Every structure is written in C-alpha cells, then in structure tokens.
Amino acid sequence: MSYADNVYKNLVNDICANGTWDYNEDVRTHYKDGEKAYAKSLFGYQVKFPKGVVPLITTKKVFTQTAIKEMLLFWVHQTVKKEDFDNWNVKIWDEWMKEDGTLGDSYAVQFQKGERNQVVELIKGIKENPKSRRLMTSFWDFENAPNKALQECAWATQWDVRNGQLNLILIQRSVDTALGLPFNWFQYSVLQHLVAHCCGLEVGEFTHQMGNVHYYDRHKFLLLEQVNYDMYVSEPKILINESLKDFFNTEISDITLLNYECSEENFKYDIAV
C-alpha cells in the first residue's frame, strides 16, 4: 500500500471502531431512491502528509482529471456556471445546480468581494509577505447562505511559508470518506503544487483538518473491503509545467500526474445528497 492508502485505512478503521451512528436522528441526507442516508462519524480529525507525498490512494481509482478540472474551474476560472462545467465534462455538481444553472453564491463566488479577490491577495501575500499568518482563503459566508446551492464542505485554507517550502492546511466541515475524501486530498495537493510553483517555492506539508468525518450505511462494507485491498506501493508525483508563471493562466495540460497505479476493482458507492 502507498502512504496515502495507509492513512486512509487508519481513518476508516477509526470511524468503524470509535464512530457514532445517527440512526436515531431525523437526518437530512438521502440517496437517489429517496431512502434516508444514515452515517457513522467522528468529530475532529487531522491527517498530515509530509513533503514529497502526494495524497492519492491506490485501492480504488480516483478520477484525477475531473479533480484537476474542478479545482481549476473554482480557483483559476472562478466560475460556478453549469455551462462551464459541462464544457469540461465535469458532472459532479449536476445534483446541486440551481434553476438558474449555477451553484448560487457557493464556492468560487466567494473569492471576489468588491474590488478584492482572495486568490489574488493570497498569491500576492505569499510572494511579498511570506511570513504572514494571514495567508488564508474562505468560502464561508453566513449572510449569503440562503443563496447557496449548498454549504461548502471544504471551506477554508491556510498557507505557511518556511524554509523555502509552501505548507497547506485544508479545513473541511463535512467529509464523505468513501466518495469525497480521496478526491479532495488529491485536488488540494495539486492546488498546493500549483501555487508553490507560481510563487517559486517547493511543496511542503499538506494537513487536512476535518470536522465531521463519516461513511454512510450503504458504504460501510464495501469501504472496509476496499481499504483492505492490498495494491500498489509506488508513490505518484505531480509535475507543473516549468514555463508556467502566472497562476491564472494555468491550463489542464500544465499539470502532469506521474507513476499513478490503482485498483481496477469497481468500488461503486451510492451518492448521498
């Protein structure tokens, strides 16, 4: 197993051993067939990946190109329009799109506040004031919450520069372990590589701070089978095009994933919304 596989397996086993089911609650989440989706969860969980480790599991296939595209749509193009997602064949948000064909005031909309843009200010801060403790972004917006298609799960980042390396903390309020977690780990690692490259830094540690981390009742047995599926030990690498200088000019072709091998087993999980 890879480093990420072991971290992932330990997390799943921890939920299994120490988590709490919400069977007695009137839960909001449900499956496509209308049945309620109950979850077993822990609250307050942190994992850390050291420099040189790409957090990409091998026990099931992670759709890496879709993860990269979604990250670029939010962080580079800063769009929440269905037509933009459709143009890149990204369908993961179709279940949440509003009638106007957008995600409302969710995600990328929050980057632009008046004349200031969070991502522009972040990159400027990393370059000009790397010792700042205010290198952060946030999607959270209590005032405009009713206008959002959904409340953001991965909602904040904090960045740190030391010893020529760019470290990242991702803060996430709700973590779907079977479906969302492997996807989020990889795409925020790609983001970290991309920002580090454009700021002339090496990639440092990646830390994921989770609030409610859970798996759903229909996921449990398949997930336990998946994490015990002994696969590859090779560690993947992310490469950024050396000629890329401006973060906002990033193209999909500027990002290359090397040495990724994964299971071909069809671990398919029902989506809970």
Secondary-structure topology with pairs:
Elements: H1 3-18, E1 20-21, E2 39-49, H2 64-75, H3 82-87, E3 112-113, E4 116-117, H4 118-128, E5 136-138, E6 154-162, E7 165-176, H5 180-198, E8 202-216, H6 220-227, E9 237-240, E10 255-258
Please describe what this structure looks like.
With 273 residues, the chain is of the alpha+beta class. It is 26% helix and 23% strand. It has one domain (3-178, 194-258): Thymidylate Synthase, Chain A. It has helices at residues 3-18, 64-75, 82-87, 118-128, 180-198, 220-227, and strands at residues 20-21, 39-49, 112-113, 116-117, 136-138, 154-162, 165-176, 202-216, 237-240, 255-258. The protein is globular, with a radius of gyration of 18 Å. The model has no long low-confidence stretch (mean pLDDT 95).
Radius of gyration: 18 Å
CATH topology term: Thymidylate Synthase, Chain A
User: Mean of the pLDDT scores?
Assistant: 95
N-to-C SSE string, H for helix and E for strand: HEEHHEEHEEEHEHEE
